[in-house]
Design a protein that fits this description.
It catalyses: ATP + H2O = ADP + phosphate + H(+). The chain has 841 residues and is of the alpha/beta class. Helices cover 51% and strands 10% of the residues. Helix 1 runs parallel beside helix 2.
Amino acid sequence: MDEFSFPFPPYDIQLCLMREIRDCIEHRKVGIFESPTGTGKSLSVLCSTMTWLEEEEQRIDRDLEQKLRATRRKIEDCDKETEEDWVEVEKKKMVARKEEDEFIEQIEERKRLKDRIEQAKNGVVGVSRKRKTPATKDFKLEDDEDEEPKDELAPSEEYHSDGEARSTRATTSEFSDDDEEEKEKPLKCLKIFYASRTHSQLEQLVEELAKTRFRPRVVTCASRGTLCVNEDVKKLKLNHLINEKCMELRKKESGDGGKKLKTEEGAAKTKKKTCKTTCEFYNCTQIEDVVNGVLANKLTTTLQVTKQGKIQQGCPYFATRKAVPQCQLVLLPYQVLLHDGTRQAWGIDLKDNVVILDEAHNVLSTISSLYSAEISTKSLILALRLIREYIETYKLRLKAKNLLYMKQLESLSNKMLLFLNGQSKEEVMTMAQFARHLNILEMNLFKLATYVEKTDLCKKFHGFYLRMQRNEVKKENEKPKLTGIQKLMAKKEEVNEKEDEKAEERPPPRPVPSPLFSLKSFIDALTNKCEDGRFVVERSPTEAKFRFMLLNPADRLAEVVNSCRATVLVGGTMEPAQLLVETLSRGSIGSDSIRRFSCAHVIDDSQLLAVTVEKTINGKPFQLTYQTRNDDSVLKSLALSIQTLIPHLPNGVVIFLPSYDFLYNFQKKMKEFGVMERIEQKKSVFTESRLPTSDVWERFSRAARSPKGAIFFAVVGGKMSEGINFCDELGRAVIVIGLPYPNKTSVELKERMRFLDAQMPNGGSLLYESLCMHAVNQAIGRAIRHRKDYAAVYLFDERYAKESTRSKFSAWIGDRTQTNLQFGEIIRKTRAFFDGNKATN
């Protein structure tokens, strides 16, 4: 068995990467690792981290036993001491006994965890895990039947701010956790948190894990939308509606379910109603059965968990949450790991654990997106109405503190709505400007946000909102009492009405999310540091809205990095990484704590041809800028160059352009020049669409593998430039036209650049360059996907030849890129490259 139990004989670069990752974890560092696609990145990360985990578990067991023996020797030595100062001896003994108790407790806890895993393998359900009694139980006392049910939507009666009565939440059922479970300290283990952007990437990781000898307890965190197996809830489609419906059903299940009628007919009606208004899958025993499957390593994927949840009738979402503390490898999407509130909801404890962030070039943009928020006039109108009706309904039960915060919520919503409906020309505001314009300087937004959170106000308002909707429907359906004449007139119209009723069988109204969730997200955004965000006012003919942008993700990233033992940021295209390093530094992470490592590629030099095309076929310098992209002479020269190059490229060719607008305009011009027709005679042509297309990729794949081959026109930063595998015949050549710089007139980009300029010299330019070159590196990386693959890369723009640009390429492409070649020379090198690889393959 080799050093890392790699399932195949590892390449040198794979060994180097695994050793670097292990050293990073052992020395508690932050590592930035680049490993090109096709170099076995996922397997390398898994084998290095799993090897460390195994060795660390053994070391902990060994150290605890050694420390316990050493401590007991201390106690024995104290008993043997004959010093006159017996007080000092007793002090030493007390300290030693305290240490002994701590070590014994740690050993016992590890033993309890092992016992729990054995129970899971044997299918034993833990009886100590209790849940509030569901309403459908039959042992309710008859004396309780006439009791007035508690109003779950009423305001909390015992809220204290400013740190007063901190124990209230722990002792009051109103402040119970989302899953309504009795609190008990869960058994925990050392773990690896592995985060990526999408669930499909996490599923692929489970497949890679199956290739190794490692069998850790693994669980994948996913949203209710992904894990829910209740068909009535799933049909709502949207995640926020699914969350709200789940919350509503569980609330009803924990309530009294309504008064029971003593007649048989009434009992039957009640039972039928309960079945429809509670969730059959929210059941403690069945959930524990699913948890056992996860801990016994029988259920390793989301699909397996949801399938078993249906069979066992246990909720896969809550089973997954309960399994997290005891699992050794926790796979989770970015939004669960990188958002503080979501981490807390899932019970994610990063302390002493290892965090792996895959595709880490997306981390900064993901954090900015997660902590941004928006709210529209429509949501504010609904929120204001809801708050006012809630205050009116419960005005006699609102204590002074509750009323104060309710009035602040009403005032904030009203002022935001007035501003959006006003004629103000302000487009971008700082936090201070926003507070001044809305005249909310006297409000303590931190206390308001805490109040909303601690009192579960969103849940209460959501229930109130649903009740309000039901009451409106009820009023619409109620028939008014008719006079005699009205009854006579109604009979004459009865026939027509019956026909109209059939036609008027309208579908139920489209569910709308409770507006308080949007308002809460916006209030949370208001609690960021003043300098870290900006407010943007966006107006359209139909509505206006506020949008909060987080400009500084440094503190949010530091929350994750500083909480865990070590952080590994890994990706196929991490370069340029300077902006990431600068962000970590702003989060108080010193340069001595950051490690950087970039892998070479597993391919040989003969398997890659990378050239910059500085001059087109007519010998004129080529540079695609905003000024030249509409110049017919420039576009014609480019089109003719591509036409000349295409016959020398076998199978599939991918052409990346800077934007959809330029793509469509360029194809239009190619048709006008007659170039497109001549290209189509050589290869089939396919184009990426802005809209989701179901079969274009399949059609291109078939055509690319045919003798004629195919061309795929795509956009840098589009769907095809990231995550799509153009391996082997699908991508024998990649052509990148121009440098895809983002739109500098964008309000968001201008604010981000201005913020970074204030933080460091040329910070805005660094962001601007990074956004462009990350996209280029991602596009280039679509081609070579494994050890025996080969491809040619053509970079059409004279700026690619500059050292300042090439230095921002991933190392494996930058070191091999050839510059200053005439077009004829490029054609000769192309023929030789493909002839050579065709002969060897």
